[in-house]
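Dear V.,

Thank you for sending over the compound details. I've combined the ligand you provided, zinc ion, with the protein sequence from our construct and run the structure prediction for the complex. I'm sharing the raw inputs here so there's no ambiguity about protonation or stereochemistry in the SMILES, which I know was a concern on your side last time.
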Amino acid sequence: MPTLPPPGPRLLLDATLPDGARADLAIDRGRIASITPVPPGRERRPAGPDGRNLDGALLLPALVDGHAHLDKTFLGAPWQPHRETADLRAQIASERQLRRVVADRLPVVDRAEALARRMAALGTGHVRSHVDVDPGVGLDHLYAVLEARERVRELIDVQLVAFPQSGVVAEPEVARLLDAALREGAELIGGLDPFGFDQDVDGQLDVVFGLAERHGVGVDIHLHDGGAPGAAQLRAIAARTAALGLAGRVAVSHAYCLGQLDERELDAVAAVLADAGVAVMTNGPARSMPPVKRLHERGVLVFAGSDNIRDAWWPYGTGDMLERATVIGLQGDLMTDQDLRLAADLATGHAARALGLAEYGIAVGGRADLVAVAAHSVPEAVAAHPERLLVLHRGHLVLDRLAP
Ligand SMILES: [Zn+2]
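Below is the predicted structure of the protein with zinc ion bound, written out as structure tokens.
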């Protein structure tokens, strides 16, 4: 059984809330019991042993990582030099070989746990992790990540997507494995470039949406295909989402094509996605990033995720969702305070909506999933991704740098 983290403080004094208001918060049995405005000019109060004085530090709802791969990370194992490959298939083959080497050093479960703990300590309270399901690993990675999730369940909530890293139609056995993964604990069904990888858009989407319908689960599809083929697949995904009444439960991860369309086509596709209730996840790639602001202004739910962290795909990544907001802000030319607030929303409220989190945000009666950071406003926190001062998960203490 996981050891329970210590109970957190029952009183948070003088926090700056995301809207700029100063408030004291009382916490009781893992929930926010009250939020009391602090009158201007109030003298500093001692918080006592059961409380913490934030001295005006920004208090955010727990950060949300909308897209990670807990099973892929090498974190905790010795550093692995990145191997460059010619294309996606070669990269997948390289990963298959490398993951056996790394697994001999440290099992998937321990690496997944290490990454989840790191995320939690950085204030992430919820993460959606895609988990490889392919003929090479079967359900082994799923079982490993389910065990890792159990180990960290008092620190962070983990949502799992059955991810066909080797395609769906290309490997006929995969459909059966995905079905099994959904029975064994995966909560969503994933996909991978129906055109670019499987060369069979309807074939892959038939399997993915068929499983979504049969199991009553949401969908989150990796779509790297660019330009017109990418846009056509977005339209196909939106059409199936609408037909199955899955609005609000379908996401497309990356959707690089949205960064390559002319404005008219971009707006047309954005309208289709917004109408169908299909969300778009970005991690702020240097090339072909979806235009976050324009999509948001056209009603598309855009959210953020880390994606690969120190694995066969990508040597970078820290799991810090405020740093991710900085990256997205830089790549997306988000400059004004309003823009920076949007960058923060991608990693907080927007991601919470995309993940279907029932209770989210700083509100009386809500879960005490909170992170205090060394900044005084949301824009500053995005610009600086500063030190985390205090992290609470269901009121339990995950990180405490404010202890008296
Ligand atoms: Zn991914």
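A first observation: The chain has a mean pLDDT of 95.

Warm regards,
I. M.
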